[in-house]
Amino acid sequence: MTLFTRTWGSSDRPAMVLLHGASANGGTWEEFAGRFGDWRRIAPDLRGHGRSPRAEAYSFDLFADDLHGLLDAYDVERAVLVGHSMGGVVAYRYAERHPERVTAMVLEEAPPPVPLGLQLAERPAGELDYDWALRPAIIAELNAPDPDWPARLAAIEAPTLIVAGGERSHLPQAEFAAMAGFMPAAELVTIDAGHLVHQHRPDDFAAAVETFLSHTNR
Hints:
Layout: E1 5-8, E2 15-19, H1 30-33, E3 40-44, H2 60-73, E4 79-84, H3 86-97, E5 102-108, H4 134-143, H5 149-154, E6 160-164, H6 173-182, E7 186-190, H7 197-200, H8 202-213
Helix pairs in contact: 2-3
InterPro entries: AB_hydrolase_1, AB_hydrolase_fold, AB_hydrolase_sf
GO molecular function: hydrolase activity
Protein name: Alpha-beta hydrolase superfamily lysophospholipase
């Protein structure tokens, strides 16, 4: 899988990989990336999204495999992962499999690994900027997570900021607190913005990330 990728900053700076949500693309991070000029920022279009190729299969493990290849392609040994929604799941799934490659994580409204009962909406009319086939695949995974995920979350030692969107979000907010409780180095902050925190409250989201990263080792 070859991913279309946006990059900013010098390769000698600490790396931050920005992972978008379902049906979006790496361009959603442009404003956020502009606030972190002392980092090397890498924002791919994940498989099936934007200008990256459509694929025969979609799963969070495949997204994580693509992320591993991306880090290798850019000679990034360790990175901070910032993931929104689906991208947040990719981040914590990757951290569980490759802890040595993850400096820290920011999980923005990343669906917690509990049965969510999400419904697949009707396909929008017209041409899409993503492969519609990925949506049923990832919704099925989110609705039926592995039952051992609490223990797997507990094994993730990377410092983690979990950003919840408050009551306007469609995701169960109490489960974010439970998720933070499972992870040994996680903290939870709620920004009342709904599901798209980094878009609807960009200043508050960036400030929370800056504060969090100021206390982590790059």
